[in-house]
Design goal:
85 residues, 3 helices, 0% strand, mainly alpha, single chain
Length: 85
């Protein structure tokens, strides 16, 4: 297949309407940097595809971090319950 799949489909803007910067400068909603957000429509399709891959990696890291936090909270609660016995 000689046609690049990226060229066949317009890549959607990943904005979900939660526009607030987190401590690392990424949007809390779509996980894009300031430049990635403000220059989205000016960037070539290939660069937007790359940004979407970066976002997927950021999402996985955020989910892993949140899972770890939840597990630590649960362990702390269990320890607190044992301390009460």
């Amino acid at each position: 297949m000689s046609v690049n799949q990226i060229e066949m489909f317009d890549l959607p803007n990943p904005c979900i309407g939660v526009c607030e910067s987190g401590p690392r400068g990424y949007c809390r909603g779509c996980l894009r940097s300031r430049d990635e957000r403000f220059q989205w429509y000016e960037k070539p399709e290939a660069e937007r595809a790359h940004i979407l891959k970066l976002i997927a990696g950021r999402q996985k890291r955020r989910e892993a971090f949140l899972r770890q936090q939840a597990q630590e909270e649960q362990a702390e609660q269990q320890q607190n319950q044992l301390d009460l016995l």
